[in-house]
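Subgroup meeting minutes
Present: P.N., E.W., G.H.
Scribe: E.W.

1. P.N. recapped why we're keeping a running log of single-chain structure predictions: easier to compare across weeks, and new members can see raw inputs and outputs side by side.
2. G.H. added today's entry (584 aa).
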Amino acid sequence: MDRNARAVPAHLRRFVVEQDYRQYTAVDRAVWRFLLSQTQAHLRDTAHPAYRNGHAAAGISPDRVPHIGEVNDKLSGFGWGAVCVDGFIPPRAFQEFQACSLLPIAAELRTREHLAYTPAPDIFHEAAGHTPILPDPIFAAYLRRIGDLGRKAFSIPQEDELYEAIHVLSERKGNPALGPEEIARAEAALDAVLARLPEPSEAARLARLYWWTAEYGLVGRPDDYKIYGAGLLSSLRESHTCHAQDVTKVALDEACMDVAYDITRPQPQLFVAASFETLHEVLDRAARQLAINIGGETALRRAVRSRELASVRFSSGAGVIGVVARVAPRIAEPAWLELTGPVGFTWGDVLQPGHERIGRPEGAVVVTGALADGARLERAGDYVIEAARERPSGRHRFRYENGAEVAGSLLHVVRNEEGRVMRIELADVELRLPGQPSRRSSRYVLLPAGDVVTAHAGAVDARFHADTTFATLPAPPERHRSARERRSISLYARAETALREGRPAIRDEFRRILATLRRHEAGAAGDAPDVANVDWLLRWVLLEGLVTARVDARLAHDVRSELERLEVELRHEQPIATGLRACG
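Output recorded in log:
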């Protein structure tokens, strides 16, 4: 796979890994086959019509774990692509990928213990859940739009802590080697973070809309609907339990942004969109609540509160990219903006060549408003700039209505093709702000800012970010396996070989495999096996093979009886009954 080198924005390449297909074992292939064959059969009549042919269109079948490069090639026919990522990536990066019509697909596959549902991202959720609906152009456009808005919505610092707590809990729930104590500690840590959270940010509220639509959405009417959300399409459990009467079905509107969700538990209510066009209508109304569309004081306030990279647009056409640390003297009446870190200058939302970064490493100050005589700096002719030159020093002094002054030696005045001032470059600068000590700088870029129009999270021009290279470690990672795991993989591989060789091999080898499996489970002492460690999935592989090949009905009967017993002993916590129905 070429990792979509031309399609992946350079600053997102660090999240893209090479899929190491060698790490998928015979057990993984059995997990994949069981999941996809069962969900396809179960959802044939309950999922959105696009689901029926969507997997084939994306190059996904029960026969093998998908090659993400091949999925990318198939999706290109619908204006999309796919990239391989290593599990959780930051929400902002995930949204930006989707805004670029790229579907991030985690390389890991859930374990046998978490077949019905896993809280961690995996290749089954992404590839089998998200891809089948992508061929629908209205839905695909919705994913792009909500991704684009999501990357521009401001978050708050506390939500980073929440993201990390959810990440840890999901990882622990997906790790069969960890006991209940480890999971309980992670749950307690998540509850503590939730208790400290203030009112959710606009990014969190938009994430809820994404969750209740792209992940857990229904389409139709509350009493007659189809499933299209990837979280439901990729969950054997919830694709079934979502139809229960105690799961409330609510007509979708923007009020769902006020409904929190828990990624680690089944959802108690779901939202039903009348159609995919409804998704766009709801998103339109949700977008009006974002800083980028409200603008002015609200946008500045959310930018400061977020403490994250922001793009600020001014009435002149100029703009800045940076972390807005302070707006003074008041956000309602900004006279200047203090920005920290690298700061970029834009004109018409385009980063200016040669001035990708302005200001010192510690940041920059941008003075807003009109000049003292009411003139707008961006419209200043040469005579206005000349009038600002002081004699006999020759230094230029620009005075503002708000009392700010910028004085320095003029280096350059840069205008656009219409003659408007885009920036004025000064050396040996003294900056005086009302009520502040004067500041000095060896170099300063004076922007014709004018009034603040709006602000949004992130860089308006991706070239602001430093380029990154693709990750060097492949995924899934190579892992150490216990002797017991290696024995299990060997039995699954023997079953695969027998299935390829045909009926005589199936009849003879399957008996040997089952006998070996029983011995392994009983242990050296011959004790009764621990039911929690009994491999029901391998038994299902054997039963499916026997039924499909129509050989050894007696052995098939024995295996079925063992599965029926395990269904009861495991308290119906595994999808054994689903597998039995598929075998007739």
